Every structure is written in C-alpha cells, then in structure tokens.
Amino acid sequence: MSVYDVEIGGLQGGSADLAQYRGTSVLVVNVASKCGLTPQYAGLERLQERFAERGFTVLGVPCNQFMGQEPGTPEEIAEFCSATYGVTFPLTEKVDVNGEQRHPLYQGLVGTADAEGHTGDIRWNFEKFLIGPDGAVAARFAPQAEPESAEVVAAIERTLPA
C-alpha cells in the first residue's frame, strides 16, 4: 500500500484525497503556526510555486503535539497560512504524528531514515517526507532543513515525474 491509499481529511472538512497525487511528487510536512520554524511556510510556498507545474505539491499536515504550537481551529489555521504566508498548497486535517493515535499516513512514513539515519518518531514541527510518483518515500528531512536548501531541492528534482 502506498501513501496515496491512506485516507485523511481536508483542513476544512471533506477528504484530502491523497490518491489525486498518484504519479506526482509530494513533500509532506507536519506544520504548526506558533513555532520557531513557522517561517518555513514561506519557503514551502516558494517550492509549491516553483515546481507545481512539473507535477509537485507540498502537503501541509497540521499537528498540535509539540508544545501546543498548532492550537487553532481549522478556520484559524487556514486564515493564518493564507494571510501570513500566502499559502496555496493543500492542508489536511490536524492529526497526531506520534504516539498511540498516530495517523496512518505517519505510520507509513516514520520507518524511513533521514540523512543522519534517524527513523521513528517525528522530532518536531516541520519534519519533511518526500514522496515519489510511485507513492514510496524517497527522502526524509529533519525539521531544521530549510525547504529551499540544496539537499531538499535536489531531492525534489530527482523525483519529479518525467
């Protein structure tokens, strides 16, 4: 089963329908509005703008598990992202990325190691997983990895559909 078969809700109801991304490259990021890393939204949006026409999207997954840094309602989260960072990429419902209530999407992601060999629990907001067009995890990046860093951009370019 690929991540594209996992069911997850959209931020403001309905389904995020991950199947629509089959055959594309997706950067899945657990996001938060009140974190020291929140300015990464700007870089994520620039990636969205830069690569969207080439079969790529950022998928923001709000999570409130790290010091309560995503406390808002779906409407507040959507307004913050749009008004503060001009976010156009899709956002899912708020989920748990760790623990007993870990969402199935993250159950399928956390087994992948990052460049330092870390697997398992998400360490903090803005941890990133790059999913290739086949639905397999192509790369994992630490929360501190800037979205537009050379390593992230190179990985995205390697996974873009032909």
Keywords:
four-stranded mixed β-sheet, globular, 162 residues, 23% helix, Thioredoxin-like_sf, Glutaredoxin, single chain, oxidoreductase, Glutathione_peroxidase, alpha+beta
Describe the protein.
There is one protein chain. With 162 residues, this protein is α+β, with helices and mostly antiparallel strands. It has a single domain (3-159), classed as Glutaredoxin. The protein is 23% helix and 14% strand. The protein is built from 4 helices and 4 strands. The chain has a 4-stranded mixed beta sheet, covered by helices on one side. β1 (25-31), α1 and β2 form a beta-alpha-beta unit. The radius of gyration is 14 Å and the shape is globular. The mean pLDDT is 96.
How are the SSEs placed, and which strands pair?
Layout: E1 25-31, H1 40-51, E2 56-62, H2 74-85, H3 104-107, E3 128-131, E4 137-141, H4 150-159
Parallel strand pairs: 1-2
Antiparallel strand pairs: 1-3, 3-4
Distance between the termini: 23 Å
Quantity of strands, as a count? 4
Helix percent reads 10-25%
Q: Please state the average pLDDT score.
A: 96
Summarize the structure.
The chain is of the alpha+beta class and 162 residues long. It has one domain (3-159): Glutaredoxin (3-Layer(aba) Sandwich).
